[in-house]
Amino acid sequence: MLNLGQIAKKIDAELHGDNNTFVSSISSLQNIRPNSILFISDTKHLVQRNLPHNVTFLVSRENINCLDHKNNLLISADVNKSWILLLNLFKKDISAPKKINTSLYKNLSIFGSVFVGRGVKIGINCSFGNNVLIEDNVIIGDNVCIKNNVVIGHNCKVGNNVTIDSGTVIGSEGFGNLITENSSWSHIPHIGSVTISNNVSIGANCCIDRGTIEDTIIYKGVIIDNLVHIAHNVFIGENTAIAAKVGIAGSCNIGKRNMIGGLVGIVDHITTTDDVIISATSTVSKNITEPGTFTGIMPISKHANWKRIALWITKLDKIVKFLNLKKI
């Protein structure tokens, strides 16, 4: 555990507050922990929030006047760079996996080589295919079937009665990046994980990314086809079905009992309500707030042209009514 004086030096930030305050974790706005650091990328995120005073804010110089100075502040000239350095401070090293010792687990069936890291817990009646890799501190429930060439990243949790087909990666590093002051891309370390609830089925060659701070969560009863990518910080609601080649970008919240057709693309920070059906090959670029079937298919074009076309499409029914009235 580091104190704020040590952290400020390591992340190239100026501390306004108590050097000797110890920090145990990093918080997100969704889950604010005591004795933690919270990155404020935009002060609009703080509207109508009563934040505890035992949280330290990491902020840019431009935002310090918008914050309550009762909190400790880490002030950075390049806040994106400092954020990346801070996440790296809290990222833990992973051990080299070793061949599994089957005597440590009950009723475990193995059909080839399986390698596990430190602190792995596996329930009863599980079966693993060949060349399975399970990293540190993974928890796997009962009656789980993991097929060939599956990777489960550190700290991930897999519930009971889960099937994961060949070639799938659970807990891959998310595609989070920031541009620092010198206009180059820097990867954001992801210290969250993935939680897969009970009775979930995941197809072959899928990728489910770990969260940046909080977990990516697949809730109970979800079924996922082959070649699906679920990005960091996504929540997939209970009993949702996702067909092949769907891509769901970061921080989406998919409702319960959704049915998502093949080749659907969902852009970042989208929310869908419960009982939504999305037609195959649709692009979802805005929230879906009512149940029903939705389709969004348009040919690609220059963005300015696309906006004009989309505007006229939304007015077609009014144009038709107007023309019909003219005929009368």
Number of structurally distinct domains: 2
- The CATH homologous superfamily name of the largest domain equals Hexapeptide repeat proteins
Total count of helical runs of at least 4 residues: 4
Q: What percent of the residues sit in helical stretches (DSSP H or I)?
A: 10-25%
Query: By helix and strand content, what is the structural category?
Result: alpha/beta
Main sheet overview: 10 strands, mixed
Mean pLDDT: 92
Distance between the termini: 79 Å
Sheet with the most strands: spatial strand order: 8-10-13-16-19-24-27-30-33-35
The CATH topology of the largest domain turns out to be UDP N-Acetylglucosamine Acyltransferase, domain 1
Sequence stretches where pLDDT stays below 50 over 5 or more residues = none
What global shape is seen?
flat
Supply Rg.
23 Å
Total beta strands: 36
- Which CATH architecture of the largest domain is right? 3 Solenoid
Q: What proportion of the residues form beta strands (DSSP E)?
A: 25-35%
Per CATH, the class of the largest domain reads Mainly Beta
Q: What does this entry look like structurally?
A:
The chain has 328 residues and is an alpha/beta fold. The protein folds into 2 domains: 89 residues, 3-Layer(aba) Sandwich (Udp-n-acetylmuramoylalanyl-d-glutamate--2,6- Diaminopimelate Ligase, Chain: A, domain 1); 197 residues, Hexapeptide repeat proteins (UDP N-Acetylglucosamine Acyltransferase, domain 1), CATH 2.160.10. Helices cover 13% and strands 28% of the residues. It contains 4 helices and 36 strands. The protein has a 10-stranded mixed beta sheet with strand order 8-10-13-16-19-24-27-30-33-35, with no helix packed on it. Strand 20 and strand 21 form a beta hairpin. The mean pLDDT is 92.
